[in-house]
């Protein structure tokens, strides 16, 4: 008897909550539903044009001391998986003679206890986790970051 009462109560709650939700949904017109697709749900919008990767081969300055440098060349189709690391075919210590690429820094050969390993540390294996190429894209949000060198200079100029 007791359990039957409980079940009835639960059904009532479910029914009333369900009813509230469906009445809310029904009152929002389709075109007002916020969606990142920027198009009605039943159409396929044209995707925006792909941005061009900057392929200048000119190293970029870093904005802060430990910034992973951005990649100044295309990386389309460069395979990085369990078996192959295309990046290391140029950037590994033993390959830079042939490739003339800058060697990955020594930190890439260190484990987290700062021991030097004979080969690339697993934690530095997936390069694009930290290094990214740049696009020729319009800045979406302004940036008023001032790096430490400019702050020091400004401070020195005051005295
Ligand atoms: C075919 C050889 C080659 C391959 C493959 C390659 N790179 Fe490079 N990379 C270079 C060379 C050469 C430079 C020096 C600048 C230039 O010429 O583009 C460079 C520059 C860089 C720099 C800039 C270093 C700095 O000090 O500013 C980064 C970061 C980098 N590469 C990351 C990568 C990553 C990540 C991959 C794999 C997704 C990769 N590279 C694959 C040859 C290569
Ligand atoms: C966990 C983040 C991380 C990963 C993963 C990583 N890097 Fe780096 N990389 C950095 C940072 C941070 C620096 C700059 C400071 C330093 O040298 O440690 C750097 C520096 C470099 C440099 C410049 C070296 C120099 O002396 O100027 C190159 C080239 C580079 N990385 C290539 C690679 C390649 C190729 C891979 C993949 C095999 C890779 N990195 C993986 C974070 C990373």
Short key terms for the protein model shown above:
mainly alpha, binds heme C, 28% helix, 159 residues, disordered N terminus
- Helical residues, percent: 25-40%
Category from helices, strands and their pairing: mainly alpha
- Per DSSP, the total helix count is 4
The gross shape turns out to be extended
**Average pLDDT value?**
83
| Succession of helices and strands | HHHH
Give the total of beta strands: 0
Radius of gyration: 28 Å
In percent terms, what proportion of residues is strand?
A: under 5%
Q: What compounds sit in this structure?
A: heme C
Low-confidence runs of at least 5 consecutive residues: 1-20
- Largest sheet descriptor: none
Subcellular location: Periplasm
GO cellular component, one term: periplasmic space
Binding site for heme c 2: 108, 127, 130-131
Pfam family, one: NapB
Architecture overview:
It comes from Shewanella loihica (strain ATCC BAA-1088 / PV-4). Its main location: periplasm. Component of the periplasmic nitrate reductase NapAB complex composed of NapA and NapB. There is one protein chain. The chain is mostly helical and 159 residues long. The chain has a domain at 2-32. Helices cover 28% and strands 0% of the residues. The protein has four helices and no strands. It has helices spanning 2-27, 88-91, 96-99, 148-158. It is extended, with a radius of gyration of 28 Å. The termini are far apart. 3% of the residues are buried. Mean pLDDT is 83; it is low at 1-20. The structure holds heme C (2 copies). One heme C (HEC) binds next to helix 2. Residues 57, 59, 69, 71-73, 75, 78, 86-87, 89-91, 99-102, 127-128, 131 line the site of one heme C.
């Amino acid at each position: 008897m007791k359990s039957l009462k409980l079940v009835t109560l639960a059904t009532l709650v479910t029914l009333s909550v369900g009813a509230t939700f469906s009445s809310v949904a029904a009152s929002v017109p389709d075109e007002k539903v916020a969606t990142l697709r920027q198009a009605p749900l039943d159409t396929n919008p044209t995707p925006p044009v792909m941005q061009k990767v900057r392929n200048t081969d000119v190293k970029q300055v870093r904005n802060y001391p430990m910034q992973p440098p951005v990649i100044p060349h295309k990386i389309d189709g460069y395979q990085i998986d369990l078996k192959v690391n295309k990046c290391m075919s140029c950037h590994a210590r033993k390959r830079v003679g042939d490739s003339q690429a800058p060697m990955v820094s020594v930190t890439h050969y260190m484990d987290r206890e700062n021991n030097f390993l004979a080969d690339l540390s697993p934690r530095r294996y997936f390069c694009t986790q930290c290094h990214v190429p740049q696009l020729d894209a319009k800045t979406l949000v302004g940036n008023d970051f001032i790096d430490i060198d400019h702050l020091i200079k400004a401070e020195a100029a005051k005295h």
